[in-house]
Write a structure and sequence with these properties.
The chain contains 17 helices and twelve strands. By secondary structure, the chain is α/β, with parallel strands linked by helices.
Length: 466
Amino acid sequence: MPGKLTITRKISYDTFVQVMEKKGAPDSLAENIIAQRKYTLSKLDRRFVKELLFGSLRWYAKLYWILQKTSNRDLDKVTAQIKTALILGSYQIFYMSKVPDRSAVNESVEYIRYAGQANAVKFVNGILRTISRRAEYFPKPDKNKHPSQYLALQYAHPKWLVDRWSKRFNFERLKIILNANNQQAPNTIRVNSQKVPAHDLLNFKQSILREDKNTVYNKSLATCLVLKDSPNLEIGSQFAEGKYTIQDGSSQLVGHLVQPKEGEYIIDACVGPGGKSGHIVELSKGKAKVTAVDFSLAQINKAKTNLLRLGHDKIEFVCQDFLDFTPTQKPDKILLDAPCSGLGVLRKHPEGKWLKSPRIVHNMARRQQALLKHSLQILKDGGEIIYSVCSFEEEETIKQKEWLEREYKDAVSFPELSTRLPENYKYLLTKENILLILPGNKYSMDGFGAFIIRKNESVSNCRQAK
């Protein structure tokens, strides 16, 4: 007799199908489904959806390998809904200890009925019940003879990516990186220093505990804190009042590299959701002039909402491709948080492991060079570009610096980063004067890369970059 499919699983399974078919971001797709169907979810429900959806994406390859070994049919030829039911069902069995195996099996079967594929019920039920009995062990590739194959399977990463990183990192270092990519990111926040001054931080942390029932942990950055649980975003919360925003520690370090000063004109070339623009305002105590640029109207609107919540209402917004943007005044600094491969933030975007291709690094590097070239053209002499990417790939970090040195020679220089970073983070600097953060670092920050370019003379007076 058919059972009942819970709303949380319906959202999770339907979103997973859309992620794999539309190649979109799981959190955005899930929110769209919730809004369109007018579902009302508790905080606990949302946590369940996130765990099931993101966890299944993290461990997709390993789960699929087990399922394919268990099945007598080629799973590459089944429908997206059948594949989803098997992946999410097996994730609950292996990784969600509080979910009874029978619930994982039964609701996966009900999803197939709900998806109008009742003819596959017996097939899905049989495979998941076999897996729930842990009836068979399948030997993995030998880690000594086939290390890349072993790591790709054991840590659920595409083999092309493991092969790529194997050329840079030894086996043990690579295990740390891969393992870190499969962990949930901490709930890191940046306290809005314009609403919560340094002397009031203790009261702020106590109010988070008292009002939001959330424990706060200190980080070594003054305004960087970690919440034990997901932040309360509801009306009347500390978040809604603009006292903090959600931002990873690596992104917060970028604000320190910008080192904004009173009276400076600063352009945020790719503003995104606006986190770094807000930090620039706060570090300059509201005395720097900031223009935020982005080609996406949706991102501009999101940035406006986020920054107005924080009380930053003096920022100028421009919806335009930065390559087509020419300011009326040459800026003192440009924050170029450039589009990138995103391979440093796979723990937050696990779908990227399966939706990205080996060409992405090369393609993004070319785009970054075009943005760097344009930035130098519009920057004032003596001005700075603070270049950052949520990637630690060589083509997007050290090789970009080498390209600038080769193409622009004495027209550019690279200010020392150690004078701008807090003491505890200087160990992250490379001998090439690049801030390079690998996954699995001691502060549990996103993978990241950054450096600073100073324009010494008019770029028109030096050999142009090709």
